[in-house]
Amino acid sequence: MNDFPSLLHNFTPVMYADDTALICAHESIDGALSMAKKELKQICDWFQSNKLALNVSKTKYMVIHSPYKVIALDSCGLQAESETIERVSSLTYLGIVFDHHFSWKMHIDSLCKKLATVCYTLFKCRQYFDAETLRTTYLPY
Q: pTM for this structure?
């Protein structure tokens, strides 16, 4: 995988452990899709030549655009190894929720939901544990 980033001309890779995100930016949706299709063909060839398998079922793509700009996304379609890559309106990468307008709303909502669950659990546990034990549970480090 060390030489994988050098293969990319139109994508900017973001790699962490076994997770890879590829970012393709262009002024127009058609230009971005055209570049992405060419690059995906090269990526699939690289995977085959290195005896690796691209798990298309775990592969997603998202078109990020301004909420004030209307974009016809019906024609958007990417394929890898003869399989269609699923287009999503939001995705989670390394614990951060990104949406197609690049706003923080979905991420903040996700964090608030998790925090509400933790707070409720601590509230229910307060009758069984003293304050120091609850504090240690909440702040383990």
A: 0.75
| 66-118 pLDDT, tens digit each | 888 777 766 668 888 888 899 999 999 999 999 999 999 999 999 999 999 98
Q: Which domain holds residue 129?
A: 104-141
Q: Do 113 and 92 meet the contact criterion of CB atoms below 8 Å apart?
A: no
73 shares a domain with 12:
yes
For residues 134 and 19, what is the distance between their CA atoms, to the nearest angstrom? 34
Q: Are residues 39 and 53 in the same domain?
A: yes
pLDDT tens-digit readout, 1-17: 678 888 888 899 999 98
State the Cα angle at 6 between 21 and 95, rounded to 5°.
15
φ/ψ of residue 94, rounded to 5: 55, 40
Interior/surface letters 38-61, b for 16+ CB within 10 angstroms, e for the rest: ebbeebbeeeeeeeeebebeebeb
Question: How many domains does one find in the chain?
Answer: 2
- Is residue 24 classed as helix, strand or coil in its secondary structure? coil
Together in a domain, 81 and 117? no
Q: Looking at residue 75, what is its pLDDT?
A: 63
